Inverse folding.
């Protein structure tokens, strides 16, 4: 008993020393990297919150969810930032996340209802993008999956089992073609040079000339344009429409800093955060800041062409879609 | 085995072996125990097992098979640049996988150098993607390692044996039967087992060069279980399968590797009288040339693409390099603290447990070890805070199989040769270790320390599961640069990593080579 009192004393003493509250945000690794949004976001939030914002980077979105599941209710995290809508159904099912209780109007295309609506009670969006095949300007690009399959263009894609964009492509084909998806994959199989573990490998292979096109985002050419003044890359517009990735964040129920966490979520949707996103995360902000988006961020397709499974549909369809993909490409 | 007096006891070594086994099996158990109901192994897992075994066996046989003539040629020739070439043999092995793949593709890819050359004469580009590509890449990674292991064995042959063979006028065939065949029997099974184990856990190489999901390995299935299905039970079963296969390979290797006393030596400078014929010389030049080309072309591709962005390399990369150097040194020290007692224990007869627990480090999936450690540490401490110590220990365990392969044969030889002398002088325990073993094992200690330092420097390892923004290692920083589109800077980071790793390797390896060979 005496030890407990001593321990309690030490704990409260150290809590008194650390009087600036700490907010821990789990996110994917590229967010926290020196070239991602992390450092600028940390600086901007700490300027207004009188707190210490601590990012913890975990590989990618899927790994992030595994990590939260592993830690359960004892997680150190107050906020998890970086899941996408393909993962939110599984994340919500853990029961670890708290409702945000906010009404927001978003600048994210909404294939399910009124523009600007956001119906998720737990997760709030911070950015989004369209998956697309990036190619070298001047080489020409197909205008649909069918044209791509009929062409002799070579592509590099990512494995849906280990990569978020890979899963995105899987769902893109499924959303566009439904039961015809296996036939599309069979048609594409001779176009696929190889399948990589993650986005970096695939993009590296493309830049090295191993393929004519690579699965990435419509915003990828903007990086080359803005950071390298290189106009040689473009994203192919497909007439089926483009599958979206909406990246979201939520507060954990077990957080010991609920107010601070709410403050962070509000901050996340404000101009200060949103204006950092385009040229660090290379995605569209979910709440367009007052200042105009940099050139290169013009939307390539109309909102009516955006494809997306709701998070429940995505959870239900992904295993079937994976089996179809494996069967078609393992022939 | 009958107990007889030994100059050293095996307790510390067995303790270290048990620690390693506990770490690997304990993390596996931690993952298995956290598992909820899963779906067990499916047909796709068995397909993955078949592919994994096929490519691992092919890769092992080819890597070791080709390494024999290369090592033989290197052992009996002396030429300018030989030691540089031998040092470079460590290079493919220590590169981050993705960097090595890009280097290989610069040479063998669809728009690589060979394809371009073929294009000039009107031939279609090379198609590297497929089983042959996987095996090619694995040979690129492992041929140099196998060569070094076999070469090491060649250099352990006392120079008196060559002298004696020359005196007896032994021809090439007799030389082979008397000296080289026994030596190969001693080293080849172990080398096969180690390359097999390395290829068994291959994932990114197999997938990328295999051209798609046909090339799914067990490690990828583990990844899928963790990340796509969150089925920890299946991940644990698959990882257990990897361990069993590797332990099986190690046991078979142990059965087949015969042990021959090498006889006494007087530490004379090595001189060879054999292999002077034109045929033998051509043969050796051919093999050294082929191996050097195969090794140096992709490496020069990596160096060339790294030079472009060198001036723009961000400061964060150098900071990460500093962390990596410290990590590599700590990991090397931990490795030696485990590997030396283990090799002494193996030398006095406790071979089985040492070799098996030693090779398990190769078979263990980094994802399973990392996750298992996470589950074990999380109740007591914040794993992120322990990222660097944990990574140092895991890297040391991963390097242990290589170190044992290098240290154990020599330790046996030294104990066999000097053990009785030591006992007769009542020189046992630490004095024997200090005055005899460490001294006579300097070359092997240097080699294994160099390998461990380089491996640790280049390994992405478990740090990805634990890292926070401030403790990025150099390989992690290279991946982050790639993830942020900065491929040129990443290539330069890779060049820096290559230089640092080779530098560390060279310093240790050179420091240990006391029979200052050419």
């Amino acid at each position: 008993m005496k030890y407990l009192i001593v321990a309690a004393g030490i704990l409260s003493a150290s809590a008194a020393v650390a009087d600036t509250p700490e907010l821990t945000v789990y996110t994917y690794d590229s967010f926290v990297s020196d070239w991602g949004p992390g450092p600028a976001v940390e600086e901007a939030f700490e300027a207004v919150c009188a707190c210490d914002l601590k990012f913890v980077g975990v590989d990618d979105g899927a790994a992030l969810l595994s990590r939260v599941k592993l830690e359960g209710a004892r997680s150190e995290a107050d906020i998890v930032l970086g899941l996408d809508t393909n993962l939110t159904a599984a994340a919500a099912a853990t029961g670890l996340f708290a409702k945000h209780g906010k009404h927001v109007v978003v600048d994210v295309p909404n294939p399910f209802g009124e523009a600007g609506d956001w119906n998720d009670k737990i997760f709030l969006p911070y950015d989004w993008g369209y998956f697309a095949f990036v190619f070298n300007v001047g080489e020409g690009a197909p205008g649909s999956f069918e044209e791509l399959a009929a062409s002799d263009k070579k592509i590099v894609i990512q494995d849906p089992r280990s990569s978020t964009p890979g899963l995105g492509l899987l769902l893109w084909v499924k959303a566009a073609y439904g039961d015809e998806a296996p036939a599309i994959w069979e048609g594409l199989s001779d176009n696929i040079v190889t399948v990589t573990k993650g986005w970096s490998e695939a993009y590296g292979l493309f830049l090295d000339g191993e393929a004519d096109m690579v699965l990435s985002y419509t915003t990828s050419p903007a990086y080359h344009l803005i950071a390298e003044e290189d106009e040689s890359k473009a994203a192919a517009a497909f007439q089926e429409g483009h599958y979206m990735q909406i990246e979201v964040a939520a507060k954990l129920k077990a957080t010991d800093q609920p107010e601070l966490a709410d403050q962070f979520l509000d901050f996340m949707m404000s101009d200060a955060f949103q204006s950092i996103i385009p040229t660090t995360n290379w995605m569209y902000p979910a709440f367009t800041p007052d200042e105009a988006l940099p050139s290169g961020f013009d939307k390539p397709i109309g909102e009516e062409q955006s494809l997306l499974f709701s998070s429940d549909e995505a959870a239900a369809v992904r295993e079937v879609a994976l089996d179809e993909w494996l069967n078609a490409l393992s022939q | 085995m009958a107990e007889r007096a030994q100059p050293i006891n095996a307790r510390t070594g067995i303790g270290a072996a048990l620690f390693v086994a506990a770490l690997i099996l304990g993390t596996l158990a931690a993952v298995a125990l956290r598992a909820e109901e899963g779906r067990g192994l499916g047909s796709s897992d068995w397909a993955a097992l078949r592919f994994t075994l096929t490519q691992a066996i092919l890769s092992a046989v080819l890597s070791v098979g080709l390494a024999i003539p290369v090592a033989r040629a290197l052992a009996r020739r002396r030429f300018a640049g030989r030691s540089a070439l031998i040092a470079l043999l460590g290079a493919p092995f220590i590169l981050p996988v993705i960097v090595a793949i890009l280097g290989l593709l610069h040479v063998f890819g669809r728009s690589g150098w060979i394809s371009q050359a073929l294009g000039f004469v009107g031939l279609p580009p090379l198609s590297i993607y497929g089983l042959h590509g996987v095996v090619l890449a694995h040979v690129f990674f492992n041929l140099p390692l196998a060569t070094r292991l076999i070469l090491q064995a060649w250099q352990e042959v006392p120079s008196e044996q060559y002298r004696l063979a020359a005196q007896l006028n032994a021809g090439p065939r007799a030389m082979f039967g008397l000296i080289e065949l026994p030596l190969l029997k001693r080293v080849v099974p172990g080398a096969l087992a180690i390359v097999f184990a390395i290829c068994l856990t291959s994932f990114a190489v197999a997938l990328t060069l295999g051209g798609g999901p046909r090339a799914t390995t067990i490690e990828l299935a583990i990844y899928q279980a963790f990340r796509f299905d969150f089925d920890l039970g299946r991940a644990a079963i698959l990882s257990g399968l990897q361990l069993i296969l590797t332990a099986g390979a190690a046991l078979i290797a142990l059965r087949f590797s015969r042990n021959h006393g090498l006889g006494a030596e007087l530490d004379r400078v090595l001189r060879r009288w054999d292999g002077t014929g034109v045929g033998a010389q051509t043969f050796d030049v051919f093999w050294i040339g082929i191996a050097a080309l195969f090794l140096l072309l992709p490496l020069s591709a990596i160096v060339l693409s790294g030079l472009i962005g060198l001036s723009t390399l961000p400061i964060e990369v150098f900071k990460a390099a500093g962390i990596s150097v410290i990590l590599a040194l700590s990991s090397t020290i931990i490795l030696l603290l485990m590997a030396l007692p283990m090799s002494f224990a193996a030398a006095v007869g406790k071979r089985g447990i040492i070799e098996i627990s030693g090779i398990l480090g190769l078979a263990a999936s980094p994802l399973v070890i990392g996750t298992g450690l996470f589950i074990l540490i999380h109740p007591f401490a914040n794993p992120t805070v322990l990222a660097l110590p944990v990574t140092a220990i895991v890297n040391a365990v991963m390097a242990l199989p290589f170190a044992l392969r290098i240290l154990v044969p020599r330790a046996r030889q030294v104990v066999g040769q000097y053990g009785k002398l030591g006992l007769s002088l009542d020189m046992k325990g630490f004095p024997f270790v200090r005055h005899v073993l460490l001294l006579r094992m300097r070359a092997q200690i240097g080699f294994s320390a160099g390998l461990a330092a380089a491996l640790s420097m280049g390994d992405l390892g478990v740090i990805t599961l634990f890292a926070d923004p401030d403790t990025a290692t150099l390989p992690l920083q290279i991946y982050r640069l790639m993830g942020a589109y900065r491929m040129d800077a990443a290539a330069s980071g890779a060049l820096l990593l290559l230089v640092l790793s080779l530098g560390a390797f060279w310093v240790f390896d050179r420091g240990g080579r006391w029979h200052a060979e050419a």
